[in-house]
UniProtKB/TrEMBL annotation, chains A, B:
Name of the protein described by the UniProt record: Glycoside hydrolase family 127 protein
GO biological process: carbohydrate metabolic process
Domain Non-reducing end beta-L-arabinofuranosidase-like GH127 C-terminal: 530-640
Organism: Gracilibacillus dipsosauri
UniProt domain Non-reducing end beta-L-arabinofuranosidase-like GH127 middle: residue ranges: 432-528
InterPro entries (alphabetical): 6-hairpin_glycosidase_sf, Beta-AFase-like, Beta-AFase-like_GH127_C, Beta-AFase-like_GH127_cat, Beta-AFase-like_GH127_middle
One Pfam family named in its UniProt record: Beta-AFase-like_GH127_cat
Domain of life: Bacteria
The Non-reducing end beta-L-arabinofuranosidase-like GH127 catalytic domain, residue ranges: 14-422
Length: 642, 642
């Protein structure tokens, strides 16, 4: 196998210093991780008990009782372990580390003699091991446990959980695989694909990589193995939970449109990208590009949300992007971030980083309240609480964030993303550093065996200025590639105060190849003028409407600022939009602009048309991801235009 | 009880001569009634067997086997009997009459010794008689059988079925009623209320009227009796099937908004109106007016469709009228016609007749294909087949009419309405004749013991001219009240060629009080200029949109005439609309007008806004109820305006 050319940095080398993100990450550390630990131990007074730790105790023979929770309840423990491990990197915490060690010891005890590790099938249905791979989530839970093991190893150097998951995977390889006598199958919920590549990365055991490749290459071969399973659960009961729900409707290498459950889909695509990273397989790369094009140019909300139907939590059809009944699961946007990150490792294109950034700042952050204590599972782009709370076809949408979920996949997913955010800022390819995300940080690089530190000071995207300073003992020949987002027309670039010609490569990166000296300082300034955005005319729900975007930040109107009946408001796209810096939220300006509101002058339901009476108004917009933090009310991203 | 002042004419006295309606009625006679007879006897090759006649044979002890079909399968037989009876009035048919007699004989044999008559509970769950009144449909089926009995008696003078239903109702009155020892309850699905009044009308047995009044007055008293039932079926499993689904959430006399299942609601309101007709109860009358206002000014589609959610087939919230996921069941519009008819019997107001006419021409007729062979259960106002056929939240909507339904309530309901259409044209109050619907007909009246015939020749509403000629041996003092629809500004009125001053009463009826002579001819001409209609600004789905209406006929655009992506079309409401009389469908002109279509110039999903490129177009609209007769394609009633 060829050596990987592009590398992701070690999280330990990257310190996030960004005021905004540090705040979010600290929330994960201070609020989410302790809160979820309590949740996993059923210590949250008004929440449904998780039972997740208890399940491990029962499986370990340390406690009596029955398994409780979802079939994938184990994954909550795994995701918590992963997030807590990342957190340890920046915030060493002996007590937390000891807790993790104890959980790992418990997991070890719950592991069966043959290596099997899954509390649901150990405790509740031991006779059904591997009988319901399409819906049983065994491989999914294994994947999350592997990711936790890798994270804890990277954080502490301890191999305790690595050993457990290696034993488990080695056992799995005696059951599942291409060889005769084994089950030829693939995960119902992809996740282990990318996890196995991570396990390969830390163990250098080629067999783990090969198992991942097998899952990808086996996937969707017809007739699908899932059709043969007798215990299909929800499967195939209706078309929305059919084979395409699992991306198993046709051989994966023939799939060029994103189908089915959105989280499954993007986790899978991230897994394929991991395979391509190491194999440079051109066919898979071209296919990933087609899938990327399909998702981001036909099936993605402007917020980076994906999945436009609640039933099946899934992709539907090109341009079918209803705002009020969107699914746009927080986890799906997180999965899109995972996928984009891996696409950047294959090839640095600003499009990948733009989407990553858009999903991160909008579709992911909207999943968590500003105080880090409440969550959205579903992230609609339009809410009228009376309808959202009433209509049956809105039943999957909440009009307010809630404290926790029976199916609690999203909060710990936000936590593990936030606590590992450093992984998304850079990639490096020999002496070239690709700078994807502008986030205040201080990072150690090794270029031709020399150390160099890049320190970035910025409040981007609240403001447009990014300052990057090099610290190096010796002069270093290095190419810096700074992403020019597609929305930015002409950034200005200075080095040590001197204006530079902006040279942009094919991938959309500002390229600076030179010898860098200590204290060399780059000042990159983006024009953050708010823009009015329209969508493809085939998007029925957005026709005649516009959205407001400033840099990567999508804005929305809330009832709190604009009154109710937001559909009565029309924005004037020709008049300038003003940044209200005295109305900042976490550094981000509110935006105001001109528009009109239709005045209701009588109560007749249907009447002969006459020009509506219009009142001039000034509207106020706030960043979409910050909506719903000031009580219940209407919200809309897409607004009618005059 | 006071005598009823306003009377509905005897169907035998009214001959429908209208070319358009005769065609529709003949379809009912020639197609629906024979087809459904075959369906009831499981003789339709590719349709799910109805089993309805077979159920009666089993209940009668004439056949072996199990009950099959819906719990309310008996009502299909009853509605067929009712429609077939009306049909006999205009088209005597010995063979059909004999068939009906045989069915009635069979029903008589299926009736139990105690008078009970319901094949489901007789054959399948005899121990559960009256145990599930909220969902068991026993009283509903009884109601339809009563209506059939009344219709057959009116058509033939035969009392065979009247005797059966009287025995049944007399038995019911031993089980249910206000007296101690009986069940204090009311129907889960209203229908028997209005049926009992019809039974009272032909039998003059006050007790039947009183039972109806009891059902109305008992309804919704809290705690609801439905909560006590153990076998609740669907009931109370979610909020959309709760007590309000049955209009049982509060005492009926406190209900002022239309809630729950739309068909249930309007059948019930029609039943209340029947009570008011005889009791002149002012409180109930005021309440009906409030309910009418709520339904028609806050919860009704422009087509006269009601029920804006598939789940629960129900009313939702004021102004919540989504076009593509509408329910707008054909039966609900028929129920609205029933209710409006009875409101007109209480008080002649053009608003009642306008809504009746609107529902009839749009929401009801849309339920049947032009050839009478295919049906819509659900009547959406916007269809894009790819979405309608795909999305889960559109699962209740069909993008094309279908041959029959497992739950076949709508087709026979259309049939019984069409074959009794004469009942909706006039009411009479001593020497005043109220003329509600302009439909070609020839009708015998008795005014002060003198016969007078009014013959109406018209192709209204295809054209605006109505000619009414009196035929009378002697001069007759009579007041003619001709409805002036609210959409008509200034009709012209001539009598014997001489222009008359148009005098309009408080109810919106053109009033002509005079001595009428043989051959006196009224010529009433309405301006049928097509109008552009807008809806209340709180209707989110219609904001910025307009509809086209000509007289009572709502128009729509179809893909067949205008290409797909109808949401890309904007209508110019300021430019005139042209009637295309060379493009008539059943006499109705197509309409054309000017507009624009947004041209798609690139494939980017989200882009910086610029003025869209617009192509001038000429759009073509056809009557809404005629849509979907030329193959599958998009349809929209509400269109964006420039």
């Amino acid at each position: 196998m060829k050596a990987l050319k592009t590398k992701t940095l070690n999280l330990k080398d990257i310190e996030i210093t960004d005021e905004f993100w540090k705040g979010r990450i600290d929330l994960a550390k201070d609020i989410i991780i302790p809160y979820q630990w309590d949740a996993l131990n059923d210590q949250i007074p008004d929440a449904a008990p998780s039972h997740a730790i208890k399940n491990f105790e029962i499986a370990a023979g340390l406690s009596d009782g029955e398994f409780k929770g979802m079939v994938f309840q184990d994954s909550d423990v795994a995701k918590w372990l992963e997030a807590a491990s990342y957190s340890l990197i920046y915030h060493p915490d002996k007590e937390l580390e000891q807790t993790i060690d104890e959980v790992i010891e418990l997991i070890g005890k719950a592991q069966q003699d043959d290596g099997y590790l899954n509390t649901y099938f150990t405790v509740k249905e031991p006779e059904k091991r591997w009988a319901d791979i399409s819906h049983g989530h065994e491989l999914y839970c294994a994947g999350h446990m592997i990711e936790a093991a890798v994270a804890y190893y990277n954080a502490t150097g301890k191999k305790s959980l690595i050993d457990i998951v290696c034993r488990y995977v080695d056992y799995i390889m005696t059951i599942i695989g291409p060889e005769q006598g084994k089950i030829q199958t693939y995960p119902g919920h992809p996740e282990i694909e990318l996890a196995l590549v991570r396990l390969y990365e830390v163990t250098q055991e080629q067999r783990y990589f090969e198992l991942s490749r097998y899952f990808v290459e086996e996937r969707g071969n017809q007739p699908s193995v899932f059709l043969e399973e007798e215990t299909l659960g929800l499967g195939h009961q209706d078309k929305w939970f059919g084979l395409d729900y699992h991306q198993a409707h046709q051989p994966l290498n023939e799939q060029t449109t994103a189908e089915g459950h959105a989280v499954r889909a993007v986790y899978l695509y991230a897994g394929i990208a991991d395979i391509v990273k190491y194999t440079q397989n051109k066919k898979w790369k071209i296919q990933l590009e087609k899938l990327w094009e399909n998702v981001t140019q036909k099936r993605m909300y402007i917020t980076g949300g994906i999945g436009s139907q609640g039933h099946g939590e899934r992709f539907t059809l090109d341009y079918d992007l209803p705002n009020n009944v969107a699914y746009a699961e927080t986890c799906a946007s997180i999965g899109l971030v995972f996928w984009a990150q891996r696409m950047l490792q294959i090839e640095a294109k600003n499009d990948y980083a733009d989407v990553l950034e858009k999903a991160l700042y909008n579709g992911v952050l909207s999943g968590m309240s500003l105080d880090g204590k409440k969550y959205f599972y579903v992230n609609p782009l339009e809410v009228a609480p009376e309808l959202t709370d009433y209509r049956h076809d809105h039943v999957h949408v909440e009009s307010e964030r809630v404290g926790w979920f029976g199916c609690a996949c999203c909060p710990p997913n936000v936590a593990r993303l936030l606590t590992s955010l450093g992984n998304y800022i850079y990639t490096q390819k020999s002496d070239t550093i690709y700078h994807h995300l502008y986030i205040g940080n201080k990072t150690n690089f090794t270029i031709n065996k020399q150390n160099i530190v890049l320190q970035q000071k910025t409040t981007y995207p609240a403001t447009g200025e990014v300052r990057i300073t090099c610290f190096t003992e010796n002069e270093v020949q290095m190419t810096l590639k700074l992403r020019k987002p597609k929305w930015s027309n002409s950034p200005s670039l200075k080095v040590n105060g001197e204006l530079q010609e902006v040279v942009i490569d094919n991938g959309g990166y500002i390229t600076m190849e030179r010898k860098w000296r200590d204290n060399d300082t780059i000042c990159l300034t983006f024009d953050m003028t708010p823009k009015v955005i329209s969508s493809h005319p085939k998007v029925r729900e957005n026709v005649g409407k516009v959205a407001i975007q400033r840099g990567p930040i999508v804005y929305c109107l809330e009832e709190k600022d604009n009154g109710g009946q937001l559909h009565s408001i029309c924005i004037n796209p020709k008049l300038p939009i003003t940044e209200e810096n005295d109305l900042q939220i976490l550094g981000f300006p509110a935006l105001t602009g001109s528009g009109v509101r239709e005045v209701n002058d009588n109560d007749t339901l249907y009447r002969e048309y006459r020009e509506p009476e219009l009142k001039q108004i000034k509207w106020k917009a706030i960043p979409y991801s910050f909506w719903g933090n000031r009580g219940k009310g209407e919200m809309a991203v897409w607004l009618r235009k005059i």
